[in-house]
From TrEMBL:
<protein>
    <recommendedName>
        <fullName>Pseudouridine synthase</fullName>
        <ecNumber>5.4.99.-</ecNumber>
    </recommendedName>
</protein>
<dbReference type="InterPro" id="IPR050188">
    <property type="entry name" value="RluA_PseudoU_synthase"/>
</dbReference>
<feature type="domain" description="Pseudouridine synthase RsuA/RluA-like">
    <location>
        <begin position="91"/>
        <end position="242"/>
    </location>
</feature>
<dbReference type="InterPro" id="IPR006225">
    <property type="entry name" value="PsdUridine_synth_RluC/D"/>
</dbReference>
<dbReference type="InterPro" id="IPR020103">
    <property type="entry name" value="PsdUridine_synth_cat_dom_sf"/>
</dbReference>
<dbReference type="InterPro" id="IPR006145">
    <property type="entry name" value="PsdUridine_synth_RsuA/RluA"/>
</dbReference>
<comment type="function">
    <text>Responsible for synthesis of pseudouridine from uracil.</text>
</comment>
<keyword id="KW-0694">RNA-binding</keyword>
<dbReference type="Pfam" id="PF00849">
    <property type="entry name" value="PseudoU_synth_2"/>
</dbReference>
<keyword id="KW-0413">Isomerase</keyword>
<comment type="similarity">
    <text>Belongs to the pseudouridine synthase RluA family.</text>
</comment>
Length: 313
């Protein structure tokens, strides 16, 4: 049986006498589900190199280690695809995702996804991991994408997301003149009963909070920085439309008043997707326990769009 590199915790003097289960859950932040899984493996939980039950008491200086079995995504076809790697270590793979590519294979779409490229990359590097993205980016959205290499790392970042501790910042180009330099949109979102694939603001929807700040105001559009407290499907697109400023290139959520200028943009062949880019992702790194941020520069199509808007009169 093969394992990933262990996570190590040295028991300090003030924790002498603690139950091992407490150390695992309160110090290494192992979830109940993951703890149930790793304690069944031969080397899953050790103290000073020896397998131990989780109800023992630890001593100061004890070396507590947890190990997870190596896994791989056997159902994902390895495929040599270009990957823009921002960072990789034994815990995480951080990519700058291109627009137009799907993250994970879906029914009827089994190749040409981020997952296919990542599995191939790991195969070539001799790395055995299961593909575990820790968050989602729509097909048309570019930007920072984090992929966990172990169940522990996935659980740790997911828990930070639940507690709203993960920083996710976006850049979006929106139509019109934004009246306020910054603001917050606190409006619930749910499916449109007449078009189930579309989301709308509705009083009985799920809580959704979006913050924005105008970075540049052009004559007919604006570049805004956006950060989220919640992660509802299409949240940025729906909230900016509700504000009266739909995203450039977003055919699903455009407004009638912008159709002429949107058609002009489409005719220019400068943008083939919604103008949304996830430029920053920050969280406490599960391996180092330090705050870490990753940034993806504005891609070429949006940089070109910014120049076009600046010259537009």
């Amino acid at each position: 049986m093969s394992y990933y590199e262990p996570l190590v915790y040295i028991v300090p003097s003030e924790e002498e006498g603690f139950i091992l289960k407490t150390v695992l859950q309160k110090r290494l932040m192992v979830s109940r589900k993951l703890l149930s899984r790793i304690k069944l493996t031969e080397r899953g939980i050790t103290v000073n190199g020896e397998r131990q039950y989780i109800n023992i008491k630890v001593k100061a200086g004890d070396r507590v280690e947890i190990r997870m079995e190596e896994e791989q995504s056997e159902d994902i076809l390895p495929q040599d695809l270009p990957l823009h790697i921002l960072h990789e270590d034994e815990h995480l793979l951080i990519l700058a995702k291109d627009a137009g590519i799907i993250v994970h294979p879906t029914h009827g779409h089994y190749v040409n996804t981020i997952a296919n490229g990542v599995v191939y990359h790991w195969q070539q590097a001799g790395i055995t991991c299961r593909f575990r993205p820790v968050h989602r980016l729509d097909q048309e959205t570019s930007g920072v994408l984090a992929i966990a290499k172990t169940p522990y790392v996935h659980q740790q970042i997911s828990e930070q997301m639940i507690q709203h501790l993960v920083k996710k910042e976006y850049l979006a180009f929106v139509w019109g003149t934004v009246a306020l330099p910054s603001g917050t949109i606190n409006e619930p979102i749910d499916r449109d009963p007449e078009q189930p694939h579309v989301r709308i603001v509705r009083p009985d929807g799920y809580a959704a909070v979006t913050h924005y700040e105008v970075v540049k105001q052009f004559e007919k559009a604006a570049l805004v920085r956006i950060w989220l407290e919640t992660g509802r499907t299409h949240q940025i697109r729906v909230h900016m439309r509700h504000l009266g400023h739909p995203l450039l290139g977003d055919k699903m959520y455009t407004l009638e008043q912008y159709r002429d200028v949107a058609a002009e943009l489409e005719a220019s062949d400068r943008l083939e997707r919604q103008a949304l880019h996830a430029f920053k992702l920050g969280f406490v790194h599960p391996g180092t326990r330090e705050w870490t941020e990753f940034n993806a520069p504005l891609p070429a199509d949006l940089s070109d769009l910014e120049q076009w808007l600046a010259n537009k009169r």
